[in-house]
Amino acid sequence: MTGRIVILAIAAVFTIGPVLWTLSTSLRLPSESFNLPPSFIPWNPDFTSYAQVFKQLNMGLLVLNSALVTGLVALGQMASAALAGYAFAQLEFKGKSALFSVILATMMVPLQVTIVPVFLLIRGMGISDTLLALIIPAIPTAFGTFLMRQYFLGLPPDLAEAAAIDGATPWRTFRSVYAPLAMPGLAIVGILAFNYHWNEFFRPLIMTISEQNFTLPLGLVSLQGNMGTGSISVVLAGVILSMIPAFVVFIFGQRTLRAGLTSGIGK
Amino acid sequence: MKQQRWLPWVFLAPTIAGMGIFTLIPIVASIVLAFFHWDIISAPEFVGFANFAEVAQSPTVQVSFLNTILFVVVAVALQLGIALGLAVLVTEKLPNWLRSFFRSALFFPLVLSAASVSIFMKYLFNEKFGVVNWLLSLLNIPSVPWLTSPTGSAAVIVLVYVWQNFGFSFLLFLGGLASIPTETYEAASLDGATGWRKLVQITLPLLSPTTLVASVMAIISALQVFDQPYVLTGGGPGDSTRTAVMVIFETAFQRLEFGQASALGVILTIIIMLITAAQFRLSKRFVFYQ
Q1: pLDDT value, residue A189
Q2: Is B113's pLDDT higher than 70?
Q3: Among A218, A54, A78, A191, which residue's Cα sits nearest to residue A134?
Q4: Of the four listed, A36, A53, B32, B280, which is most buried by Cβ atoms within 10 Å?
Q5: Which residues in chain B touch residue A79, judged by CB atoms under 8 angstroms apart?
Q6: SS3 category, B249
């Protein structure tokens, strides 16, 4: 048992250590950021690097952009996935299973294959180099639809009948009866969308050109490019700031996140 | 219950419209575009298989695809090995708080952005003042030119990628292990089986369906590696860390060869499909379902 714990502890040091080093270096004076041996505990934390990030990078705007993109994509995914998942689970229509298979199949197509036509479409729609270019194409979600279908399948169809007898419209039935019961599923879709799009790099790199439309990961990479190897504590301060929301979600939504990452994959 | 025939379509409209426009049409467009020469400026011109022929002959493309395959083999083997090993070590026998601590600590890198991770890793692997070489110097290992030599950079890309992604396979394996009934182990203990034999004769065979899923997912995602090499090395030195997706990106958005980029995308998809199909075939022989 001790052997196990020692190995696991070493592995945990490897996963957490680099992030702790990043945090501690961001709290050191820029001139001391390269000191070796690295001190993990910043005895005299210095926040000048954090102030510097805000000076060298339009941090407020980057955060706002990232938050807007991530938030709207998450909400859009939750809404569209809930609607489609409900239709697949609780409503009857022609071609249901064929359509569902097509949606599942799209999960296997890598993003890089569709990126050129999507880029051209975005240009054609006149929204290239805007935040909309990052939001709109990201809303339809095959995985979310799949997940919400699973959730709605778990709810009894009798509820709809009862609601109909009470005179509820189909929309009302969905909105007030089924959707609230599927909240845990919606939370998974939302948290996964948040985690993915807050961290996304490839699509924003292609879709945005002007710095005013950059999201956080892009801004940080460009900051790093500008600084060469000058004062890394400033770059690392930016990295730490960008991680805070992901970290908060990790702490409070860990269970949901774990369920989401592994659900639907089956055993 | 009687329902209007159009009703389901109202619920499906956002998803169907969105996927039609941003996934299905682009897939078809990509395949069509692969047969055209187009730089956005002049009119598209049908060129048959010329794009495929051209990319197949490009040394950069050849090296990048080869790099990607090598990367997938090494990274996926490491990712699955580490994940499986650690998942087996996290057992019920550990105190609860320690178990949940290890579980969280080990999948934590998964929630960070690959771009940010690559940024701080770049400093950790710096040849002169990076912590990694400093740690190696404590073990009397001479400093390694991590990001300035072809082998070093390739190793860093693998290490950083695996560091961030092994947690995903780890979660899958934890789920798989939890689904193995404890009675199976108890019966084996009665038969006098010890730890190692239980692992080889019970755990691994019963875990094989999970291993299949984990390996399919790990391979598909490793084939698409981009953020780490883009930020850490920019594909260099030379082309030593250029990957398939980096070449697609550069062909389309730097060289404006949209037809060639589409052809590369089609080739990558075919590779992914072939590998996935091969895995499912192979699995018929090695995967043991309860």
Answers
A1: 94
A2: yes
A3: A218
A4: A53
A5: 14
A6: helix
Find out whether the peptide bond into B44 is cis, omega within 30 degrees of 0: no
For residue B152, give the nearest of B241, B267, B78 by alpha carbon. Answer: B241
Q: How far apart are CA B242 and CA A200, in angstroms?
A: 20
Sign of CA dihedral B68, B73, B74, B76: positive
| B111, B126, B209 ranked by CB distance to A250: nearest | B111
Rounded distance, CA B48 to CA B54, Å? 11
Nearest to A4 among B89, B120, B253 (CB): B89
Cα angle A2, B78, B286 (rounded to 5 degrees) comes to 95
Query: Which chain A residue lies closest to B209 (C-alpha atoms)?
Result: A267
Choose among B8, B112, B226: nearest Cβ to A93.
Answer: B8
Output the CA–CA distances (angstroms, integers) from residue A215 to A207, B5, B81, B249, in the order listed.
Answer: 11, 43, 35, 19
Tokens 């600590």 -> residue: B105
H-helix or E-strand containing B36?
Answer: strand B36-37
Residues in chain B: 290
Q: Do B9 and A38 touch (CB under 8 A)?
A: no
**A91:B11 CB<8 A:** yes
The two tokens of residue A161 are 């009948």
Which of helix, strand or coil describes residue B90? Answer: coil
Question: Is this complex's ipTM strictly greater than 0.85?
Answer: yes
Query: From CA A267, how far away is CA A113, in angstroms rounded?
Result: 28
Q: Residue B269's closest CA among A116, A201, A140?
A: A116
pLDDT at A267: 32
- For residue A145, the model assigns a pLDDT of 96
Helix (H, G, I), strand (E, B) or coil at B120: helix
Q: Which residue has the higher pLDDT, A78 or A39?
A: A78
Q: Chain B closest CA to A74's CA: distance in Å? A: 14
